[in-house]
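A.,

Following up on our hallway conversation. Structure tokens first:
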């Protein structure tokens, strides 16, 4: 499990939690905030520094990752056991395009229904996670400006359809996928952008999940990842602070 927290000075730090042990994530020479985005079964951590650099941590070794050569910005969001990375770029026009990075090679991924003209910035496609079969989870903006989620399996784009149909929520954001194709994430319902609910999606359909201590007027409930045993991680807002959690789904 990877953990982020604020220290006594207000700096964002990160750890890998194994049982009761906390292994700090501290790239050499970095004094900025540390963020973590993924970990694979070999313990390789994908992270980011407040100095705008992404890195991989394997044991005590840190490797900084290069950007896409044609991108204005490059964002990495997930890693699998083969070391494949996913994320998205923004191009010179401010459009978003997803990618899978294998070794030093980038394969671009654009959802066929993504509409770059639906908003001013970051419209397009971005990928959020990849499983060990090479299936990816992602989000795109459609022609109506709605955020849609999908699983890409080969050339197939499988939609993640929420309760109430595709036109129900204001936006659906998938964050994690395991080898069984189960996905987790969050969505904003049609009442208000502050009503955020978590979800799991599998062969039984889209299931809404709200942490019992989350409040509707706060940030709500967010799921951020799920492993092959069905254990999911996330965080919620109880009206006073944000709290991390893990849960068997």
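Then the amino acids I'd put at each of the 249 positions:
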């Amino acid at each position: 499990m990877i953990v982020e927290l604020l220290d006594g000075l207000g700096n964002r730090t990160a750890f890998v939690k194994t049982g009761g042990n906390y292994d700090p994530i501290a790239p050499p020479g970095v004094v900025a905030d540390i963020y973590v985005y993924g970990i694979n079964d070999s313990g390789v951590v994908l992270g980011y520094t407040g100095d705008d650099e992404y890195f991989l941590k394997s044991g005590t070794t840190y490797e900084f990752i290069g950007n896409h050569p044609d991108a204005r910005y490059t964002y990495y969001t997930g890693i699998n056991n083969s070391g494949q990375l996913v994320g998205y770029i923004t191009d010179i026009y401010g459009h978003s395009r997803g990618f899978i990075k294998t070794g030093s090679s980038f394969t671009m991924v654009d959802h066929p229904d993504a509409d770059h003209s639906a908003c001013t910035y970051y419209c397009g496609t971005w990928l959020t996670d990849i499983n060990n079969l090479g299936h990816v989870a992602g989000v795109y903006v459609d022609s109506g400006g709605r955020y849609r989620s999908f699983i890409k399996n080969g050339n197939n784009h499988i939609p993640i359809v929420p309760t109430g149909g595709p036109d129900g929520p204001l936006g659906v954001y998938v964050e994690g996928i395991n080898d069984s194709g189960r996905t987790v994430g969050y969505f904003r319902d049609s009442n208000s952008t502050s009503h955020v609910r978590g979800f799991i999606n599998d062969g039984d359909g889209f299931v809404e999940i709200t942490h019992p201590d989350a409040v509707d007027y706060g940030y709500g409930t967010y799921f951020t990842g799920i492993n092959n045993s069905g254990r999911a991680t996330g965080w919620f807002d109880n009206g006073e602070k944000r709290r991390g959690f893990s849960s068997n789904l």
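Residues 1-9 have pLDDT under 50 and may be disordered. Curious whether your intuition agrees with the design.

B.
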